[in-house]
Amino acid sequence: ASGTHAMFECPDFYPVGPASPSQTYVMKISDSGDWYALGSYDSSSQAFQPRQSLRRYMAGNFYASKRFYDPVQQRQVLFGWVQESSPTTGQRGWQGSMTLPMEVSYDAATDSIRAFPIAEVASLRNESLFSASNVTVKAGSDTALPHATGLMLEVRAAFALPSAAQSPWRRCVEARWSPAADGEQRAGACREAMAVQSDSGAA
User: Fold this and answer.
1) Which partner for 10 in 30, 42, 51, 185 could form a disulfide, CB atoms 3.0-4.6 Å apart?
2) What number of other Cβ atoms are within 10 A of residue 123's Cβ?
3) Rg of the chain on CA atoms, in Å
4) What is the Cα–Cα distance from 123 to 20, expressed in whole angstroms?
5) What is the per-residue pLDDT for 29?
């Protein structure tokens, strides 16, 4: 895999997707963010052959992730450190947090991994504290949610973007991360985006 990294913190290596002779493996490192590459593994020579350059594991301040295999549900479970800093750290006595545990899966349509919170997270939810629609969020401003207070909150929001933002690449990204989209829907949306880009380049 291409790229220059000064150190390999918190390395990880594991299989994803259906078990087969051409099993896909994940090689992951932490260095100024978490990175991964997919490839194949030869057990006889104990050699990993990446088939792509390093990619970001997760967006945002996600670092030093750890993973374990759940043999009961037969899934790879991932969690990571959300880094942050605050001038009130001394007063509140803590800094940073851990992500929710996420199930890692392989997306053959885009040859990448996907991660969504494990199903058990739903058991942590109780009553809804606030619900609203047609709320305008202005750029660079804070939008308060009345009555939404507590030590642990989940915010679920759907955004209506300007029509100019509904580009083929936007549809590709939305399909890529939608848990409801199947492989063909994701691949079709991204093929459309690449075709538009090719036509633009030819023009």
Assistant:
1) 30
2) 7
3) 20
4) 34
5) 93
